[in-house]
Amino acid sequence: MSHSVSPDLSPGLSSDLPEDDRPLRPALLRGWRRKCPNCGAGPLMRGFLKVHDACPVCQQELHHHRADDGPAYVTILIVGHLMAPLMLIVFTRLRPDPWIAATAFSIGCVALSLWLLPRIKGAFVALQWSRRMHGFGHEPAEG
User: Fold this and answer.
1) Alpha helices in the chain (DSSP H)
2) What is the pTM of this model?
3) Is 94 helix (H, G, I), strand (E, B) or coil?
4) Distance between CA atoms of 132 and 121, rounded to whole angstroms?
C-alpha cells in the first residue's frame, strides 16, 4: 500500500511560485551592502540597526523581518573565531605588554563587531525575504 505525500507548504505559499523569483545569493549580497533585497537600490536601514518598514524606492514591505538576536550571535561567532587565533599568535610570537595587548584587542573586537553587525543583520533580513519567511511570502512588490 503506497501513500502519496504532498509537500508541506507554509501558509501563504503556493506551489505555482517559481523557485528562483527571489534568488538567495543576490539577496544576501544586497543585504550585506545594507540595501533592499528586492531592488538593491533603496537603503535597508534608517539607522544603525533599525530596518525601514518598507523600501523607499520599490515599496517592498520589510517590517516582517525577525532577525532578533541572530545577527548578534553570528557577529560574536565571527569576531571570536578571527580574534582568538590572532591573540594567540600575537602573545606567543611578539610577547606584548598585557595592558597594551588587551587595549588593542578590545578596540579591535569592538570595531570589528560594529562593522559586521549591520551587514550581518542585512543579510539575515535578505535571507528571510528570499526564502519567504515570517510574512515575506506574499508576491513581491511592484517596482
Assistant:
1) 24-32, 70-93, 98-130
2) 0.80
3) coil
4) 16
